Amino acid sequence: MDPDLLNQTFPGLDLEFLGPKRSGKVRDIYERDNRLIIITTDRLSAFDHILGLVPFKGQVLNQLAAFWFEETRDIVANHFLESPDPNVTIGRKCRPLPVEVVVRGYISGVTKTSLWYRYSQGERYIYGMEFPEGLSKNEQLPQPIITPTTKAEKGGHDELITSREIVENGLVDGELWDRVCTAALALFARGQEVAARGGLLLVDTKYEFGLNDEGELLLIDEIHTPDSSRFWTATSYEDVRSVSGQRSSNGQNVVEPENYDKEFVRLAYAARGYIGDGPPAPLADDLAVQASQRYIGCYELLTGSRFVAGQNPVAERVERCLRQRFLAK
Description:
By secondary structure, the protein is of the alpha+beta class. It contains eight helices and 16 strands. It folds into two domains: 3-95 and 285-327, 2-Layer Sandwich (Phosphorylase Kinase, domain 1), CATH 3.30.200.20; 97-241, 2-Layer Sandwich (D-amino Acid Aminotransferase, Chain A, domain 1), CATH 3.30.470. Helix 1 packs parallel to helix 7.
């Protein structure tokens, strides 16, 4: 990849003609006519910090989410209406549920809310579930499980919570939470099925849900992208699980499967001793380029289509598209 592309990344932009802007770690959001205009930037967030910019990341996330929204529409309705630009989604406005629904098929991860991190610290009762002794890092679970977290306020950290606490604390009604969990597990199964066609394993993922004005449950935000999910290549997983000493219970010196997701960056930071305490070092250029290659590779393996970069500069293209769409008479 041409290193000059690092000078063409898309940090976001201000579009005053659309009204007030809400900025998340990765997306800039405007409201218009009871719809959301969601602009996906190249910002990369990990450990609840924005680390830097990754070329084409925003386009990959936006177009891959659009692919998955269509692939899973028969399971649960979603907020997606259209994508008028490679970095833009128009979605239905709704009331987000105050929890993130994390589904895990394997015991893995380096962040403090990850299943493996908690297990490696000696915990055996995690997310309201008992785990047996002797599990090893990256081991497949008997069946996928739901490990929800709270949604952190800006600058905060997501916190572990159990399904029971969600209902007892009134965050989500019990009947609605049952529907959310049923939908999440069905979405995960579909994700595993589609990923397998591209030679990938869907390891774990995060879903967000909301309710529209009619009370309909909607899948929102994104789905099965390299930001919200962990993907391993199936062949590399089989190889590393056969390595001598792989079942080390403390997880030390474990060979990691080849991944096509943000975990590549998390692991690089963790290898340098950083897992979220204090401010992180800026994303290095070489790591940004390698991450970009993984994001694009993930897109191509999942969709079976070649990634085609949109016209640069991205900010000018996005603004032109949205001006034509919302200011044209």
